[in-house]
Amino acid sequence: MDTTIREIARQAGVSPSTVSRALSRKGRISERTRSRVLNVARSLGYRPRAEAVDAATGPRTWHGASGGRSSSGNGSGNGGASSSSSGSGSGSGAGASMAAGAGVFGGGSASIGIVFNRRLSSLVTDPFYGAVVAGIEESLQNLGYRVFLRSIDGAGDNSDLFADQAGENGFSGFRGLLLVGCDVHPQVARTARERGIPVVLVDNELPGDPVDCVVSDNEAATRSAIEHLYRSGHRRIAFIGGPQSHISLAQRYAGYTKALDELRLPSHRKWVVFSESVDRHGPQIGYEGTLRLMDLPQSPTAIFADNDMTALGVLKALHERGIRVPDEVSVIGFDDIQVASHTHPPLTTMHIPKQQLGSIAARRLVDIINGVDPAPIKIVIRATLMTRGTVAMPASAAGDTASGETSEPTNETEA
Predict the structure, then answer these.
(1) Mean pLDDT over residues 300-323, rounded?
(2) Nearest CA to 81 among 97, 70, 93, 96?
(3) Residue 75 pLDDT more than 90?
(4) Of the candidates 195, 256, 199, which has an alpha carbon nearest to the alpha carbon of residue 409?
(5) Residues of the chain with pLDDT > 70: what percent?
(6) pLDDT of residue 92
(7) At 107, phi and psi to the nearest 5?
């Protein structure tokens, strides 16, 4: 069978549409990328056919390596973006050259901005976003783009950064923007689109706004986690999470409540603890929330933490209380950051392919820049359960049905 455009794209580390432009010598593409594609094509003995250009568009439904799918049924066609995630939160390769906010990758002349809230001052070393940025970096470097980090104030719309004379910290010189995380003001994406700057949201979405986004399937993944606890014999399952103003965190709580309802489990309002402050979301709310839960007359036998950093706080509190995990209380997290497999016992969690998420977002942005499938799409990456050592059958099945109030869940927030 003749070598296909998709095989060339895979080996060259580019999208099939880029291969098509390189072979036809039409469209905007850097000479460096064109040369790499042609070299791979020659090495594979590729012989162009009349239908080769049309074949580059590929299937209309996006399937990621983890089973994700575009909810619009309209895929980006970037079949080369299937690199597997290492699960590392170190962001290796991204931190050294981008930590100062002006790192440059690749030899091309076009620049792409990675935009994030100033609160994430250590983005490239963040256990979750560091791995996402590593995936973005690798893909854009292979495609010949320069990459710049830009931190912005999350409180305002940052419209001044789109001015033609915005200076070195502005957005006017970028060919495209990747907005990372839920803390970037929605107006940034809207203003960019109004000015003709392609945008892709990473780990965030704007329901009702026509903006491309790459996200994990938060609600379905959380339901899978709760179902795993249920199959392990748990009936009193608590939730500890962060601000519900963050759509990904709100989706995880929605998955928790829906799972309880579907499994006909008690939804006790005292078994839900939120941190309304972003700064306290993580080990602090995990630790404080667990102490509160363990002081209840009828404490839960299992705790779902909406991210692994929160789960670390849960494990610390249980250890200090002398409560054995998983013999007395089971714990499950979300994200599968690098440290999750090194806790004692190792943390059971929902794995998100973080580097793949970043890579797919980067390749989708490049496709938009090049005019491939310009209609906005939502790409959803599926999470998978990583079964380790923090979930087991409850010590006693007695009293698993909670007494007292079992009405619909009520948000009990952390003061």
Answers:
(1) 97
(2) 70
(3) no
(4) 256
(5) 71
(6) 35
(7) -105, 0
